[in-house]
Amino acid sequence: EAQVTQNPRYLITVTGKKLTVTCSQNMNHEYMSWYRQDPGLGLRQIYYSMNVEVTDKGDVPEGYKVSRKEKRNFPLILESPSPNQTSLYFCASSFLGGAQYFGPGTRLLVL
Amino acid sequence: AQKVTQAQTEISVVEKEDVTLDCVYETRDTTYYLFWYKQPPSGELVFLIRRNSFDEQNEISGRYSWNFQKSTSSFNFTITASQVVDSAVYFCALSEARGGGSEKLVFGKGTKLTVNP
């Protein structure tokens, strides 16, 4: 089944404790992206990648890191999480120029 | 800057009613794509449709239809004979083409549709 998977789906952590949210797709998509969804602010792009070893900032990259060492994986790293990073995070993937398909989302709470 | 406006924050209808969700966009690009996504209460984002700026034909898929009008910069979504399972938040989005196929989706704030039995 073609899909985008994210892990974990739910995470509670404390300020400053490094965490990684994994994202994987099995559709051989070149393009992958991370978004965060917040009430009243909607969905905003954090980082994106057009292919292996090619990443770039979206609208709200502060406090996040990404890497793209393999085509199928695009992990989101929070080196020192803060409460304002409490959010619902979505990973998405697509062929270049194609429709983006989203993962199931990761709910993160930073205390 | 690109912008998507969904003026209807919440809509409530009774089952079997038709409902139209409005979407108005702003862009200076001549080539762009418009999308609709559905977010049911379970939280995932489900792709519904993608339309390019050169194709103004209306699209119908079962009970869903979309009306794209460049003249008014609108891309409205109609659900015919609504059902309880249609209850969700619906997002309209616009792609910002950055060249090379890299597209950032700019989302509207969403319209929450509640279909009551």
Question: Keyphrases for this structure?
Answer:
heterodimer, A: mainly beta, 7-stranded mixed β-sheet, 4-stranded antiparallel β-sheet, 11 strands, 0% helix, 51% strand, globular, B: 4-stranded antiparallel β-sheet
Explain what you see.
The complex is a heterodimer of chains A (111) and B (117). Chain A is mainly β. Chain A is built from no helices and eleven strands. In chain A, strands 2, 4, 5, 6, 9, 10 and 11 form a seven-stranded mixed beta sheet that branches. A four-stranded antiparallel beta sheet of chain A has the order 1-3-8-7, with no helix packed on it. In chain A, a hairpin with a 3-residue loop joins β4 (31-38) and β5. The radius of gyration of chain A is 13 Å and the shape is globular. The mean pLDDT of chain A is 94. Chain B has 117 residues and is an all-beta fold. In chain B, the strands form three sheets. In chain B, strands 2, 5, 6, 10, 11 and 12 form a six-stranded mixed beta sheet that branches. In chain B, strands 3-9-8-7 form a four-stranded antiparallel beta sheet, with no helix packed on it. Chain B has a two-stranded antiparallel sheet with strand order 1-4. In chain B, a hairpin with a 4-residue loop joins β8 and β9. Chain B is globular and about 45 Å long. Classes of the chains: A mainly beta (111), B mainly beta (117). The interface between A and B is medium-sized, with 30 and 21 residues.
What is the percentage of strand-forming residues of chain B? Answer: over 45%
Beta-strand segment tally of chain B? 12
Count all strands of chain A and give the number. 11
Radius of gyration of chain B, in angstroms, nearest whole number? 14 Å
Strand/helix succession of chain B: EEEEEEEEEEEE
Kindly report how far apart the N and C termini of chain A lie: 36 Å
Main beta sheet of chain A: 7 strands, mixed
Main structural class of chain A:
mainly beta
Parts with pLDDT < 50 across at least 5 consecutive residues of chain B: none
Q: What best-fitting shape of chain B do the alpha-carbon axes yield? A: globular
